[in-house]
Each structure stands twice: as structure tokens, then as C-alpha cells.
Amino acid sequence: MSSHERPLADPGREKQAALYMAEGLAADEWAARNAHGIGSWSFDLYRYSDPALEAWMSQLAQVFKSPEALAEARRRYLTPARIAEIEAGYDDGL
Fold first, then answer.
1. pLDDT mean over 15-24
2. Domain boundaries, the chain
């Protein structure tokens, strides 16, 4: 589905997406640090009125959709110990 076919995000979803981006991380780093804690992701079903947010969310969705890209992002941004914790299902919020 192209970005023009997706509905515009409602204000609450847009605000939450903006909060994710406001953490100041690249989209792939955000995914590396947070994907394991997300049970369901539907933010990619919408488009965002802010072009920068739209681009960031599109990049994030690409990482979420690719196990290889997520693994690469984890190797890039996380320590081997943290990756092992995530893979073992342990999350202390770090």
C-alpha cells in the first residue's frame, strides 16, 4: 500500500508517533531498543501529516518488517549482553 493509500493518522496516534521520534534516536536504533517490547504494531498502516515524522515512521516500519534489518540494528546499537537478554526474553528496561 503506497503512502497515499494509507489513511491519515488520528491525532492521538500522530502524537504517540511524534513522542517516539522525539526520543532523538534514529529509527533503526529505536527499533533495536524497543521492538522486543511491542506486541502489536499498526503505526505503519497510517500516514503522518509531518513529512519528517512520515519519513521516520516509514524507516521504522522497514526495520520492523525485516528480521534481518532488526538483527543488524541490534548488532549496531546494543551490546552482545543486551542482545542476549532480549533474545532470552528478559527485559529490565535498559
1. 97
2. 11-88
